[in-house]
Amino acid sequence: MTKIPEIFGKFVFNETVMKERLPHDIYKALKKTINDGIGLDRAVADCIASAMKEWAIEMGATHFTHWFQPMTGITAEKHDSFITPAPGGNVIMEFSGKELIKGEPDASSFPSGGLRATFEARGYTAWDPTSYAFIKDGTLCIPTAFCSYGGESLDKKTPLLRSMEAVSRQAVRILKLFGKTEVTRVVPTVGPEQEYFLIDKEVFEKRKDLIYCGRTLFGAPAPKGQELEDHYFGKLKPRVSAYMKELDEELWKLGILAKTKHNEAAPAQHELAPIFTTVNIATDHNQLTMEMMKVVADRHGMTCLLHEKPFEGVNGSGKHNNWSLTTNKGENLFEPGKSPHDNAQFLVFLCAVMSAVHKHQDLLRISAASAGNDHRLGGHEAPPAIISLFLGSELAGVLEAIKADSDYEGTGKQTMKVGVSVLPEFPKDSTDRNRTSPFAFTGNKFEFRMLGSNDSIACSNIMLNTMVADELRLFADELEGADDFLSAVHELVRRNIKEHDAIIFDGNGYSGDWVKEAERRGLLNLESTVDALPYYIRPENIDMFKRHGVYNETEMRARYEILLAEYSKVVNIEALTMVDMVKKDYTPAISNIQRNLCETILAKRNVCPDIPFEAEKLSLQRISQLADRIFAANGELDDALKNVPTGTALEVAVYYRREVVSRMKTLRALVDEIEAHSDRNFWPVPSYGDIIFSIK
Ligand code: ADP
Ligand code: MG
C-alpha cells in the first residue's frame, strides 16, 4: 500500500522543499515574490535555480522546460538539457537564474492572431513563481507566462494572473468599507470537476474519426445507452478502478489534490474532482490532470476521450468550474455568515456576481464556446446555451423580500433590511440542487457548468474575475462616497436586485418553455460558437478588460480571430475526415453488403427458383437507394469544402457553420441508417455498442 502523505507532492518543488533547500533569506525573498508579487533580483534567482537543479537531478531529471499555455488551450513545452561543456570533453549540469526566469522559445508556430509578425517571431516566457515547478517525465517543468516582445500576452496564464489582480484590487476596496482593513489580497479559488470517457485502445485505433477528431462522426445508436441509469455512481469495473488508482497516485505525486472519482451518467463515462485551490494553480493542475488522464489510460490499454461530445445520443462531457473568492485572512466571501453585518457583506458580493452574470452573459457563454461544445450545449444533459443564475428558493426568497420591501418568512416575518436583518441558513446539500442551471450558487461558491471537458478553465475564470471586478468597482465607487454606509448598502443591494433579477431562474433549464421565457426576459440565447464570438469584441467588453488591465484591444482582437479560426479548422478537419471515411471505408463496405445480397438472391434463384427472396430484394433496394444518396451527399460536402470563401475570419466561420455543419449532419444520418440495417460483419468500423461497452 502506498502511503499518500509520503508520495504527495513528491515531484513538486513546493514550500517544504524550498524551505529545506534554500538559504533562509533567499526563501523569504521568494515568499515575498509569491505572496506580494515583488520582483526577484538576479542573485536570488541564481540561487533558487541552482537549488532547483540540484533537487531535480536528484529526482532523476535531465532536462528543464518552460511550461506554458499558448492560446491553443493546451500546454507547450520545449526541453533543454542541463548539460554545459566542460574541459576535458566532459559536461557539467547547469541551470542559471536567467534560464529560470526567462525563456525565448521560437514561437512563430503558435497562434498569435496577428500579434506577432513571423519576422519577429520571438516571444518570451516568464516564470510564474506562484505556481510550483514540478518534474514530469524526467523534465523539470517551470510554469511560465508567454508574451510577445511588445509585452502582449500570447497565452492564457498572463490574462488570468492579471484578472486575479483586478478582482483582488476591487474586492479589497469593498472589504475596507466593511472594516476589514487587514485584508490586503483576495484570491479566486477554483475546483474544476472533470468528466471523461474511457474506451479500449484497440477499438479507438479502428476509428479514424476518433483518431483525428476525438469524437465519432458516424455511428448508429446502440440498443442500450444510458436510459437505465445504471452507470451513474455505479460500481467501478476492475480495469477502470485500476486506472483511477494509478491516475490518483500520479496526480498526488504532482501535488494535485485529486479527491473524488466516480462513474458518470453515460456508459464508459467517469469524473474526477480535485479539492479547490487558487485559480492559476487550479488551471495548471487541470491541464496536468487532463494530460495524465491520457498518459495513464495508454498504460492500461485504454484511450481517454476528453472531447465534449464523443458520441451522439449519450451524454457529453463537461467541466464544472466551482468558483469563489477568499481573502488572505481565509474568509470565503460567499459564505453568508451569521451576523447582519456579515450578511450585508455577503449580499454585496452576491449582487456583484448577479449583476455581472446578467450584464456579461455573452462573455460567460463565449468562455464555453467551441466547435466541440456546440454539440453539447442545449442537449438534454447539458446546460442550455442560455445563461441564468440559480440561487435556491431560500436565497431567491430573501432577494425577493428585499426587492419588495416585504416580509421574509424565514426571518420571523420582519422586513428584510440589509445590515440589520439576519439571513436564514442556506442549505449546502447537493441533493436538492438544480442540475439544469448553467450557473448555480451552491451554498458558499458558484458552479459554472457550461464548460466542455476539453476547455482550459483559464478563459471562464478570466471572464468571471474581470466581470465581478468591474461590478465591485462600481459598488465601491458608490459606497465609498456614502454618508450612511449601511443604508447605502441596502439601497445598492435593492437597486441591483431590481435591475438584474431577470437573470435568476430556478426552474428546469432543459425545458422548451424556458427558451421562450428567457426571450421574454431579454436574455441572450447564443446557440453556437459562431453566434457567440462576435459579442467578444463589443466596445463595452473591450473597455471593461482595458479598464482592469486584463487585455488591451489588440490582445482581444487577436483572441477573437484565433477562436474563430480554430472553429473553422476543427469543422474542416471533421468534414475532411467524414469525406475520407465515406470514400475509403463506408463506400467499399456498402458495395460488399450489396454484392452479398445480390449473390444470395442469385444463388437462391439458381438453386431453386421457388424460394422467395423478397427480404433480400427489399434490403438491397433500400441500401442501394441510400448508397446513391450517400454518394451525392458526400459529393456535396466535398464541394462545400472546396468552395470555402475567402473573407474575414467571421465570414469563414459562418460559412462552416451554415454550409458545412449542415451537410455533415445530412451525410451522417444516411450512413447511420445503413449501419442500422446492415450485417455487422461487413461494417468497417466498431459500432457504438462496441465502443461504449468496450471496457469489460
Ligand atoms: P458536486 O458534484 O456536487 O458539484 P463535488 O464535490 O464533486 O460536488 O465538487 C465540488 C467542487 O467544488 C470540488 O472541486 C470542491 O473542492 C470545490 N469547492 C468547494 N469549495 C470551494 C470554494 N470555496 N471555492 C472553489 N471551489 C470549491
Ligand atoms: Mg458539480
The end-to-end distance, rounded to whole angstroms, is 25 Å
Find the structural class using helix and strand composition.
alpha+beta
Whole-number tally of structural domains: 3
In CATH, the architecture of the largest domain is 2-Layer Sandwich
CATH class of the largest domain: Alpha Beta
Shape: globular
- Mean pLDDT, all residues: 92
The amount of beta strand, in percent, is 5-15%
> Which blocks of ≥5 consecutive residues have pLDDT under 50?
none
For the sheet with most strands, the description reads: 9 strands, mixed
Compute the CA-based radius of gyration: 28 Å
- Tell me roughly what share of residues is in helical segments: 40-55%
Small-molecule binders here are: adenosine-5'-diphosphate, magnesium ion
Q: Give the CATH H-level superfamily of the largest domain.
A: Glutamine synthetase/guanido kinase, catalytic domain
CATH fold-type name of the largest domain: Creatine Kinase, Chain A, domain 2
Could you walk me through the main structural features you see in this protein, from its secondary elements to its overall organization?
By secondary structure, the chain is of the alpha+beta class. The chain folds into three domains: 151 residues, Glutamine synthetase, N-terminal domain (Ubiquitin-like (UB roll), Roll); 389 residues, Glutamine synthetase/guanido kinase, catalytic domain (Creatine Kinase, Chain A, domain 2); 127 residues, Up-down Bundle (Four Helix Bundle (Hemerythrin (Met), subunit A)). It is 48% helix and 13% strand. The strands form four sheets. Strands 9, 10, 11, 12, 13, 14, 15, 18 and 19 form a nine-stranded mixed β-sheet that branches. Strands 1, 2, 5, 6, 7 and 8 form a six-stranded mixed β-sheet that branches. A two-stranded antiparallel sheet has the order 3-4. A hairpin with a 4-residue loop joins strand 18 and strand 19. The radius of gyration is 28 Å and the shape is globular. The mean pLDDT is 92. It binds adenosine-5'-diphosphate and magnesium ion (MG).
